[in-house]
Design goal:
Blueprint lengths: L6 H15 L2 H8 L6 H13 L18 H13 L7 H14 L2 H12 L5 E4 L15 E5 L2 E8 L10 E7 L10 E7 L5 E6 L8 E12 L3 E2 L5 H15 L3 H17 L1 E2 L2 E2 L4 H29 L9 H22 L8 H4 L10 H13 L9 H12 L3
Parallel strand pairs: 1-4
Antiparallel strand pairs: 2-3, 3-7, 4-5, 5-8, 6-7, 9-10
Length: about 400
C-alpha cells in the first residue's frame, strides 16, 4: 500500500483508500458540516493505525513510514476531499515530533507508541487570558518542590481539552531579563488532581475550545521536555511546523467543492446561482487565491525537502490559508441566502430527528461563525504581520 514515490499515482492510491476505508457515518457527518464525536474520531484513528498510516510522516522506528512533506500534504488533501475529518494535528504533528526531537529515551518509549496507536489524545496549553498571541508573556507558574513541579494558573482556547488524555503546557519556572527566558515545557496527565476543564460554548453552538485551570497541580520533573527554563526553543520549533500545516490546502479545497455543489443546485428567479455574475466573480477570485496559496506552499515544501530551515516567512501561509477559509464560508452562506439563516442547535448536537431539510444549509451559519477563529488560532494575523515585518523584512 502506498509504495510508489510518484505523487500522481500516490494521490490515486490515497483517494481509493479513503473511498474504501472511511466509515459511512463519519463521511456523512463531515459532508453535512457537523462535528464528529470523539468516538467517531478515535475509531477512525484506530482504523488508520491498523493500516499503518496514522502517522506515516513519522520515522519507521516509531510506527511511521518516513513519508516526505509532499506526500503528507497530498495525503491530507485527499483525506479532506474524500470527506475524512482533519486529524488531531496537536497529537500527531506537534507533540509527537517534539518528543522525537527533544524527549528523553524514557519519554519517547512511554508516549510515542501510545500516540501512534490512535488511542491517546493530546491538547496544547499555550494561550492564556492575558497572553494569547503574546505567548512569551504567559503567567502560569510552576514551582519546583523536590521531584515535582507545582503548577498554578490557567490556559484558554485549549482545543478539545474536554476529550484529551494529556496536555503539553508552557509554564514560567523563572523570571528572566527577557520574557522568553525562564519558560519550561511540561507534560501533564489530564486526570491529575487540580486540573479543571471548562468548555466554552461559542456563538456557533459548538464546544470547541476550553479553559483549563491548574490549582496546585503536581507534575513529576521527569515529565519536563528539555532543560528547565529552555522551553521557548521547543515552543518555537513547534510553531514553525504548525504554520506550514495551517495553510490548510485540503480544507480550502473541501470548502470550494461545497460552494460549487451548492451553487449548482440552487436557483434564484429561474437562474442557477452558479451562473450569476456576482457568484462567478467571487468564486473565480477565491479559486485564484487558492491556486496561488497552493503554489506558495509548494515552495516551502520543496525547501523543507532540500533540508532548509523554514523561517518566519512561513507565517504567510497561515495568514492566507486561514483568511481564505473564512471567505469560502462567507460565500457559502451568501450562496444559500435565507436557507443559511436558521441555527439548529439540536441538529448540530447530532440529533437526527432535528435535521433541517438541507443538512449542509443547517450548519452553514455555524461554520461561518466558527471560521472567524481561523485568523486567531495559531497566532493572530496581526501578530503574523508583525513577525514578517520584523524578522523577514527587517522593518
Amino acid at each position: 500500500m502506498f509504495s510508489t514515490t510518484d505523487l500522481a499515482q500516490f494521490r490515486q492510491e490515497v483517494r481509493q483508500f479513503v473511498l474504501e476505508q472511511l466509515p459511512a457515518d463519519l463521511r456523512q457527518t463531515i459532508r453535512q458540516g457537523q462535528q464528529p464525536t470523539p468516538l467517531q474520531l478515535i475509531a477512525w484513528h484506530e482504523r488508520l493505525a491498523a493500516g499503518g498510516i496514522l502517522v506515516p510522516h513519522w520515522p519507521a522506528k516509531w510506527g511511521g513510514l518516513g513519508w516526505t512533506v509532499a506526500q503528507q500534504m497530498v495525503f491530507d488533501e485527499e483525506m479532506a476531499l474524500g470527506g475524512a475529518p482533519e486529524l488531531n494535528s496537536i497529537t500527531f504533528d506537534m507533540i509527537g515530533p517534539v518528543l522525537m526531537r527533544f524527549g528523553s529515551p524514557d519519554q519517547q518509549q512511554r508516549f510515542l507508541p501510545a500516540i501512534a496507536s490512535g488511542k491517546q489524545w493530546w491538547c496544547q496549553g499555550y494561550s492564556e487570558p492575558n497572553a494569547g498571541s503574546d505567548l512569551a508573556g504567559l503567567g502560569t507558574r510552576a514551582e519546583r518542590d523536590g521531584d515535582e513541579y507545582v503548577i498554578n494558573g490557567s490556559k484558554i482556547w485549549t482545543s478539545y481539552a474536554q476529550y484529551a488524555d494529556w496536555i503539553f503546557v508552557l509554564v514560567r519556572t523563572e523570571r528572566g531579563e527577557k520574557p522568553q527566558e525562564g519558560i519550561s515545557f511540561l507534560l501533564a496527565d489530564m486526570k491529575t488532581p487540580g486540573i479543571t476543564v471548562r468548555p466554552i460554548i461559542g456563538i456557533h453552538g459548538w464546544p470547541v475550545f476550553c479553559e483549563v485551570f491548574f490549582d496546585n497541580v503536581r507534575v513529576p520533573v521527569d515529565q519536563r521536555i528539555g532543560e528547565e527554563n529552555r522551553g521557548w526553543t521547543i515552543a518555537k520549533s513547534l510553531l514553525e511546523f504548525e504554520r506550514l500545516k495551517l495553510a490548510r490546502i485540503g480544507e480550502n479545497k473541501r470548502r470550494m467543492a461545497r460552494v460549487r455543489e451548492i451553487a449548482l443546485s440552487r436557483t434564484r428567479g429561474g437562474q442557477r446561482v452558479a451562473d450569476m455574475p456576482w457568484f462567478r466573480e467571487r468564486f473565480a477570485d477565491l479559486e485564484s487565491r487558492l491556486i496561488a496559496l497552493e503554489a506558495n506552499a509548494a515552495r516551502f515544501v520543496a525547501r523543507q525537502a532540500a533540508g532548509e530551515r523554514l523561517g518566519a516567512e512561513v507565517s504567510m501561509l497561515k495568514m492566507r490559508g486561514s483568511r481564505l477559509i473564512q471567505l469560502w464560508e462567507e460565500l457559502m452562506v451568501d450562496t444559500l441566502g435565507p436557507e443559511a439563516m436558521p441555527l439548529c442547535r439540536d441538529w448540530l448536537a447530532g440529533k437526527p430527528d432535528a435535521a433541517p431539510q438541507d443538512a449542509l444549509a443547517g450548519t452553514a451559519s455555524s461554520r461561518r461563525f466558527l471560521a472567524r477563529g481561523y485568523t486567531i488560532a495559531g497566532g493572530t494575523s496581526e501578530i503574523q504581520h508583525n513577525i514578517i515585518a520584523k524578522q523577514v523584512l527587517a522593518l
